[in-house]
Amino acid sequence: VNATQELGGTAIIGFGATEITRQPDDTIGSYAVRAVRAALESAGLDKDEVDGYVGAPGLASYATNHWDGADEVSAEYMVSSLGLRPRWSVDTSGLVLGMVAAARGALLTGACQYVVGVRALYYRSGAKYSSVSSREIGGSEQFTLPYGYGPGGARHAQWLSRYNALNGATREELFAIVKAGHEHARLNPRAYWRNSTLTLDEYLESRWVVEPLCLYDCDIPVTGAAAFIMTTTSLARTRDVPFATVTSMSNGFHPRTALDDAGLTHRDIGVCQLYDGFACFPYFWYEALGFCAEGAAHRFIQDGAIELGGRIPTNTFGGSLGEGRLHGIGHLHEAYLQVTDQAGPRQVVNVEHGLVQVGAPDRSWVAVISRGV
Amino acid sequence: VSGSGVVTGYCIVSQPFVAGFVTPYVVVRVSLIDALGVELIANFTGSATAAIAIGARVHVVFDEIDDNVVLANFKLETNAA
């Protein structure tokens, strides 16, 4: 029993999500509002019962404008659009599990009872997503951006170049992560790549974005929104809906603390949702969480080990590589669906605990999400 | 410091994310041999992009971009042991 379990714990009692597209016909505000309404319906909750709000408006893109309601949504925008009257609200810095951590704190300290959390991203096909053209730069970027180093995964490509060299890892091996994402996307009607037939040859022949990362190693920018409803575990038990507990959480600097606090090891985890903004990210977590030895992840993931039916099914909804870039709320959504037995054709049998990790390896959160009882 | 270092990471940028850069170009992470723990981000110059490798010995070159901007870049060290 960890400290938050002693306090009673928190739970996710509903989730809602919109369609995912690269040709949005509406503002992001509209997507976000629809996601919240779907989440409320899923939780069997009236909006007047919501007394907490958590969002993460940032990081929609580096290159486009930032207009509240048009391509991003603030707490103020959502509260006003939905007619909420929260006792507690906050906008966090962008990681979905950071939103959960904030909501968890608010619920356990009694600041509110029902929190709605919203993540919405806007992208229109053809728009530059990740480019910069500034002639002035300050802060730490003054030492990197003048060398054309910054957006588009350069940092992670450098990490992968070193990983490959030190461990003898190959592109053919990395494809296992992309393949799992695309295979699982075919079982997710919302996924951008739901009709994907990507082959190893097509993958190997695709253009470089930032070598050693090719086009399919980068998640795909999309428009879409999803929302969750969190409450205390004791209140969750009073409602007639399946729920998932947020059993434990830790910052990515202490990846195994989430497992330790839950009294679990990686062997107790039935399904993993690992953030895959770039295909190489999961390497780091299989090693850091103890699924395999350091430097061995590229071999560990082979032969279907991370696909449905494998040793540790991963990103069973397609991940950001297959479903689209919703900055991790898709990962949390899938963890909730899996432990509440609502994942349909991609349901893993008898999942008691799922692991969710959101963020790049050096700025991240890890959580154990469990079947609520 | 001597200006010599070892490449500890690299990437070859093929998509024009930053205005003014001609793709593809190489961005290296260089660990200075005589300043333990200091790593610099820089461009790799003077060789074909394919010449870059983890562990390669490199040496600084100062490229004048304009009257006000000088960038410290790295090229392969020719007399490396």
Short summary of the structure?
The complex is a heterodimer of chains A (373) and B (81). Chain A is an alpha/beta fold.
For the structure shown, list the relevant keywords.
heterodimer; A: alpha/beta; two-stranded antiparallel sheet; 13 helices; globular; B: 81 residues; mainly beta; five-stranded antiparallel sheet
Describe the structure.
The complex is a heterodimer of chains A (about 375) and B (about 80). Chain A contains 13 helices and 11 strands. The longest helix of chain A has 16 residues. The mean pLDDT of chain A is about 95. In chain A, strand 2, helix 3 and strand 3 form a beta-alpha-beta unit. Chain A starts with a helix and ends with a strand. Chain A has about 375 residues and is an alpha/beta fold. In chain B, a hairpin with a 6-residue loop joins strand 2 and strand 3. Chain B is globular. Helices cover about 0% and strands about 45% of the residues of chain B. Chain B has about 80 residues and is mainly beta. Chain B has no helices and 5 strands. A 5-stranded antiparallel sheet of chain B has the order 3-2-1-4-5, with no helix packed on it. At the A-B interface, helix 5 and strand 5 of A face strand 1, strand 2 and strand 3 of B. Strand 5 of chain A pairs antiparallel with strand 1 of chain B, so a sheet runs across the interface.
- Give the number of DSSP strands of chain B: 5
Oligomer: heterodimer
Shape of chain B, please?
globular
How many beta-strand segments of chain A? 11
Count of DSSP helices of chain A?
A: 13
The pLDDT mean of chain A sits at 94
Rounded Rg of chain A = 20 Å
In the sheet with the most strands of chain A, the strands line up as 3-2-4-7-1-8-11-10-9
**Percent helix among the residues of chain B?**
under 10%
